[in-house]
Fold TBC1 domain family member 5.
Amino acid sequence: QAVMTIASSEIARCVSKDKHGFVFGINNLLAAVLQSFATFFMSSLSSSKILMFYTDFEDNSSSGNGQNVSVKLYESEWKYLFNIDDIDELRDIAIKGELRTSRFRSICWRLLLGLLPSDSSEWLITIEKFRSTYEQTKLIHYNDPHTQDSGPDNPLSLDDDSIWKQYFKDMELKKIIQQDVIRTSPGVEFFRTEKIQKIMVDLLFCYSREHPDLSYRQGMHEILAPLLFVLHCDHQALLHVLEQSSSDVSDLIKKILEPAYLEADA
């Protein structure tokens, strides 16, 4: 998990240098991650304040007030992480491995990647725009000529503007992506489910269609995988807290970590 935290920091650094946001060499990225990984183990790892939050919870829950303590600690971690004014301080927390036990790791990553503004009051608006943009992107690129009136167009057309020609190209692209996706982390059950595999294929396909100059490259699924998994874990943490006390969790957290938007938010 510490490696993935460092990876997110390095991705953010690469993204900030490239106007396309993702057009960088996979080998360069891996080299940067490995270098940071070595630095990480050479430096002393400070005790995790976030881990201490939940260690305290375990101690207090035995007294009979576990449910209230759990929600309070959940909110306390939110305030601890997102009342930080300096993004470099949050990055330092990540590099030290203190996000390993965080229930808001996916949000921290989005901040480090520059996907969220520093002002938390703008987060929901920003995230809703991303969600809307993704849904529109899917509508644009998921065209099935079987359900449309293609007029004189037909499956044998060689015209560059042919809906059918693009459809067959898309099917071939999805097959290539699917071959990689089904091999993602074979030992992790999360990636064995048909639902998650479809989400990964859809995300990578849409990205490829939006960036034809780069398209899909082998290994992109390995970058998507930890982002998707960490987001899912944050969703599960929220659902666990909501089971104890839905009314005590802020609406902002509920909306930002809405599990229904796993695909769009990844």
